[in-house]
Amino acid sequence: MLTCEFCGEELVLEEDMKTHLLLSHPENDMGEQSHDGEAEGRGGHSLVRPSSSPTPTTTIVDNHCKQAIGLSRSEGSERGVDNGNRFDTIVSPRTSNSTLESKEQITEAGGEFGGGRAVAIVVSTSSVSTGFLRSAQDSSRPTSRHCNADESVGVGSAEHTKVKQKRFSSPTKEKRFSCPMCALVCTDAFILQEHVELHLLEESPAEEAVLGATSSTEAASSSNSSGGKSYECPLCSVVCGDCYSLQEHVELHLDYGTATSAVSPGSDLRLARRLQEEEKQRRKEQEAKREAEEFKKLQRQFGVNGRGGYRKQMERTVEKAVSRGVMVHAHFHNKRDEMMEALASGVDDGRTRTQGVLGALYVYYQREARDCVHVWLSADTDHYYSSEGDKGWGCGYRNFQMLLSSLQRMEPYTTCLSEGSVPSIPQVQVLIEGAWREGLDPQGATHFNQRLQGTQAWIGATEIYALCTSLRVSARVLDFHQPTGPGDTHPRLFDWVKQYFSQTATSGARLPPRVVQTTQPPLYLQHQGHSRSIVGVEQKKNGSLCLLLLDPGCTPGDVRKLLSQDGSTVSTAVCRMRKFPGNLKHRQYQVVAVEGVLTPVEKQTRILNSRTLQAERIP
């Protein structure tokens, strides 16, 4: 491999080097011709820089620009001897390789050339050239030949000296391009592109082309910058800190089809905004879908999903019984007629009612339950259970029927309540809508869209309060909003219930009896998803309390076991009514307690205050 000492280009053949010297460096050739004459007369020094390629070492001697010398050490010595000249060959190794140092020796060939000495300085290097790439260190190191300007004679020698001084004072500045992936420097952008493509052989063809253009653009921009390395995308104006980030950025262009089109400097910003808008739209759609599903779930839960109310559910249930063969058609028509008659009258037909429950409990505690120190029972109350028309959603209405059945038997409430008639569930819905129209609980009315008839909507403590106030019955709502005992229990609730039932039973008595049936109406107990009625409380010998609950979910058969004469059967039924603190572990409980009758003025005051209805929070 031959290397030009003027421009550093490497050629393989000697003929190519001669042609290159004649075409690219004619002024140096003229200077060398004059310098050759001087060398013949006085002797000269020549700098020879061989390439370290595997081919045999071949050097170019400056005083013979058209003649290659130094083919081998032995040949050079023989040629010097044959010509009668004397060459001093100085080898300057640039590597620490001992093999190279051992092979190159400093020798002197005998012979005279015009009475002087010709010294050939052979510089060996270990850097391997690729033919079109050189390292930044080698390309920046100036190479020159030394000549004695004072000894030059003739016009040719003067021109040669001027050319040499011009070349040393004004070196040629070449535009160089650094590879973004390694330390190599290229003199041409297309060569750099080919080199970068070698780094990306394992990438896809489309990505190789884009990344090759990226590396070429970055190499051109980095040659004019003195700061840290950065990589500019060839498709937009984004600058990345490393080549891997640039590759990921270009892949985004490929994914969205922007790599093959002409891209303006602001296209990446538009792409980012489009992606952001698409992400926002996708999130909005997912949020709307989730909200719709939750709304439908709430509609099913609270019975406002458009499936009809008490009447339609009763009809569907009876029709299913006929289709299964459980009910004959004649019975179906009779039951349907009875239902239509009860709905028209607005009074419950009493088919779901069980009477005499509190009396049976009083007798039981008189004979049994000796582990109880005290037992307090509410006033006489009938049990109502959920039928085919309200199963799954009518517990609130049934508990109001239980409360109303007790109030109708008590003297203070007979003036404002119709004696002996308990409204049906559709009629209770009508009464609640009437309370809303009077101005009670406007927030609750808005929640149900001012409508309960023909729906399976659940009702809670606030609807019971509004209905009682509309009937001029004084009521209060107590909110046990958080557990007050270990294990998420509510001992404060149990204590309050005991105080409610025992406050009238113990007045004026020194030693209260063990079993007391008070004149207090039952309590409406509401928690998440269900409601029940509290009709009594037990106090054990160890001081623990136990509530007695009537559940609308219990069938008439289970409740009527309390009326049995068999002690074991009654004990089993009472055990189902008992609820200890460990059985009531919902996070929140609300209680509606009736306290008397309202005057018209008090009712109006309650209506005004219900605009911001608030419960009494305990604790």
TrEMBL record:
Parts forming coiled coils: 269-301
Region (Disordered): 26-97, 134-169, 209-230
Main location: cytoplasm
A Gene Ontology molecular function term of the record: cysteine-type deubiquitinase activity
Boundaries of every C2H2-type domain copy: 4-25, 179-199, 233-253
Signal sequence segment: none
Biased composition (Low complexity): 50-59, 212-230
EC number assigned by the record: 3.4.19.12
Protein keywords: Acetylation, Coiled coil, Cytoplasm, Hydrolase, Metal-binding, Nucleus, Repeat, Zinc, Zinc-finger
Catalytic activity: Thiol-dependent hydrolysis of ester, thioester, amide, peptide and isopeptide bonds formed by the C-terminal Gly of ubiquitin (a 76-residue protein attached to proteins as an intracellular targeting signal)
Biased amino acid composition, Basic and acidic residues: 26-43
Example of a GO cellular component annotation carried by this entry: cytoplasm
Polar residues: bias regions: 136-146
Record keyword Hydrolase present: yes
Entry's localization field: Cytoplasm; Nucleus
Family from the record: Belongs to the peptidase C78 family. ZUFSP subfamily.
Subunit and interaction comment: Interacts with RPA1 and RPA2.
Function per UniProt: Deubiquitinase with endodeubiquitinase activity that specifically interacts with and cleaves 'Lys-63'-linked long polyubiquitin chains. Shows only weak activity against 'Lys-11' and 'Lys-48'-linked chains. Plays an important role in genome stability pathways, functioning to prevent spontaneous DNA damage and also promote cellular survival in response to exogenous DNA damage. Modulates the ubiquitination status of replication protein A (RPA) complex proteins in response to replication stress.
Name of this protein: Zinc finger-containing ubiquitin peptidase 1
